[in-house]
Amino acid sequence: MSNYIADALVGEPEVLEDTVLEDMAITNLTGSPAWRRLKQAATALQGVQAQDGSIPEVDAHADARGWVTEITGAVTELAPRFPHDAEYLAAVVVDFERWAAEGFGVPDFYDSLMAFHPEHHRVDRTRHLVVFPMYTQNGSANRLVEAVLIEVIWPEFVAELELEYTNKLFVPIRFLDFTAGYDTNSAVLFPETVAMRQIPTFTWGAIFADREAARFRTVVRAAAEITRLKLPAEAAALLDDQHLTEETFVMWDLIHDRTHMRGDLPFDPFMIKQRMPFFLYSLEELRCDLTAFRESVKIERDDSASPEARRHAKLVQYAVIFDRIFRFAITGTRVRNYDGLGGQLLFAWLHQHHVLHWTDTALSFDWDAVPDVVVALGAQIDELYWESIDRPKKAHWLAAYEMLTKTLTPNPASTWARGLPLEVLAGPPKGYTDLVLDDEFPLSMFFEALDKKMKPVIESTVGITADA
Predict the structure, then answer these.
(1) What is the mean pLDDT of residues 33-50?
(2) Crossing angle for the helix pair 338-352 and 445-460, to the nearest 10 degrees
(3) What are the beta bridge partners of residue 177?
(4) Which of 176, 104, 105, 110 is nearest to 147 (CA)?
(5) Around Cβ 461, how many Cβ atoms within 10 Å?
(6) CA-CA distance, 217 to 451, in Å (whole number)?
(7) Nearby residues of 235 by Cβ (< 8 Å), 6 or more positions away
(8) What percentage of residues in the chain have a pLDDT greater than 90?
């Protein structure tokens, strides 16, 4: 045994020492008095802010000025640890001081946001201190002062992949510490959430791969046990290795994120700007995931790809399937849940193409056949998009609904399923969207049963990080 241990450590002390030093550096940062003061002051400010970020109660302004002074002092003290963010951290101090001097109206942090460029520092373990009045997507809808310490995840194989799957805006990150807005389901840091006077062209978007990975590992472990699914060894490895799963999600997100701007698109890819039936959002998000799946199949089968890329490409395929069917399908409410619908569609498609089986209360997959079946679903959505370039918008909506109903059963009360009235068909798009039910495609009996057993597990992942 002693020989085995000695052999295992030969040539590795530098790696072990680096890891220990990195962990110490993180602890020294998150445990520093300056960070603790900043976090406490930001939390205190949140208690007096309105939804738009302003502080309307004049009686609270004296305390608020004190908290702003604490924040700016802490930022200034911490700034030398982030030399790559010097311009941003100086600008955010100015924005806080101006906000206080002007009487705590709706905050405007445009100047400091324009100085923050994490996309310029995509180097593994690069750290950033981020402080803004902002809402947190899938977290808080209020533009409150939030503070978060983050670390970039940028493994070598992803840097190589990015040469082909170019996505200069994509910044994968992990949490080091955060205020309450991130003690939620939020797993993104997007510039558009910041309070600012005008909307610029955004140059970056950050995704917390550690939260995605930790949530995935917790949910899939429980779901596999409940459904008696025997996981392939490669998939089981994801449940045992947070670092491996983080890297897998980084690869998935890299390709997914860029897909919103690529392909035969019949509409503005930033669909959130448009009001349309929620199932259109379902198809767009699923299209991007299935593109990541398809490209991962291609990479896995490419002998010229690096071993690390090929290994992670296989893992991305498992991640897409299991996250979609086990977590997306039953997370959130049944009110226009577009991610949930995408998970339902993928499950039903796999089942109806006989590569997923729910037999004798056990779930199983024909893994050799799964990749081509999943790719076929992506191809069907791509075909819908291509054909709809020549269709009016409302006709595209009807075609998308028809495609969905070939796989999923709509709500029995659905007006869309029965056929929209002529006056609605001839009228403005609003008439179409108004008649979409909140739960246009209810959960199947399989998912109803799974939801009851999985609900406590999914709820337990709120605020989860890699340390969970």
Answers:
(1) 98
(2) 130
(3) 149
(4) 176
(5) 18
(6) 17
(7) 315, 318, 322
(8) 91
Q: Which two tokens stand for residue 7?
A: 């052999």
Across all residues in the chain, what is the average pLDDT?
A: 94
- Pick the more confident residue, 387 or 4: 387
Region 213-218: what's the mean pLDDT?
Answer: 98
Residue type (1 letter), 110:
Y
Cβ(264)–Cβ(389) below 8 Å: yes
Residue 133 β-bridge partners: 145
Which pLDDT score, from 0 to 100, does residue 9 have? 37
- Each domain of the chain, given as residue ranges in start order, spans 31-203, 212-460
What's the per-residue H, E or C state across the chain? CHHHHHHHHCCCHHHHHHHHHHHHHHHHHHCCHHHHHHHHHHHHHHCCCCCCCCCCCHHHHHHHHHHHHHHHHHHHHHHHHCHHHHHHHHHHHHHHHHHHHCCCCCCCCHHHHHHCCHHHCCCCCCEEEEEEEECCCCCCCCCEEEEEEEEECCCHHHHHHCCCCCCCCEEEEEEEEECHHHCCCCCEECHHHECCCCCCCCCCEEEEHHHHHHHHHHHHHHHHHHHCCCCCHHHHHHHHCHHHHHHHHHHHHHHHHHHCCCCCCCCCCCHHHCCCCHHHHHHHHHHHHHHHHHHHHHHHCCCCCCHHHHHHHHHHHHHHHHHHHHHHHHCCCCCCCHHHHHHHHHHHHHHHCCCEEEECCEEEECCCCHHHHHHHHHHHHHHHHHHHCCCCHHHHHHHHHHHHHCCCCCCCCCHHHHCCCHHHHCCCHHHHHHCCCCCCCCCCHHHHHHHHHHHHHHHHCCCCCCCC
Would the pLDDT of 5 be above 50? no
Instruction: Express as a percent the part of the chain with pLDDT over 70.
Output: 93
How is residue 309 written in tokens? Answer: 């890329």
Per-residue tokens: 61: 């302004």
Beta bridge partners of 151: 127, 174
Backbone φ and ψ of 412, nearest 5°: -55, -25
CA distances from residue 39 to 180, 201, 215 in whole angstroms, order as listed:
9, 29, 25
How far is residue 219's CA from residue 409's CA, in Å, rounded to a whole number? 26
Taking the CA atoms of residue 437, residue 438, residue 441 and residue 444 in that order, the dihedral angle to the nearest 10 degrees is: -130
pLDDT in tens, 395-423: 999 999 999 999 999 999 999 999 999 99
Question: CA nearest 171: which of 56, 85, 293?
Answer: 85
**What global pTM score does this model have?**
0.92
Scan for tokens 């955010």, then name that residue: 92
Query: Given pLDDT bands bounded at 50, 70 and 90, which one contains residue 21?
Result: low
